[in-house]
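Ligand: zinc ion. Inputs:
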Amino acid sequence: MTQEPDTKTCGMCSMEIPAAARKCPYCLHWQRWLSLQNPTILVPSLLVPLLVFYGITEPQPEPCVLTFSLTARRDYTN
Ligand SMILES: [Zn+2]
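Predicted complex:
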C-alpha cells in the first residue's frame, strides 16, 4: 500500500516513464521544471545575477545633461 509507483505519466506526451526520470525519454520534456540542468532555467539563472550586477555598477546619468538642455534653451531665447 505504501509502495511508491515506479512509473509516472509524462505531462507532455502522456507516455509512461520511470518515476525517477528527470527528462522524458520520448519527448525530452523536463519533468522537474526547477532543475538546474534544464536549459530554460539555467540560462536565466546565470543571466539574472549578471544583469543585476551590471545594473548596480553602471554609473548613474550625470546631471550635466539637464544643465546642457537649460543652457541651450537660454541661448535659443537670446
Ligand atoms: Zn514525454
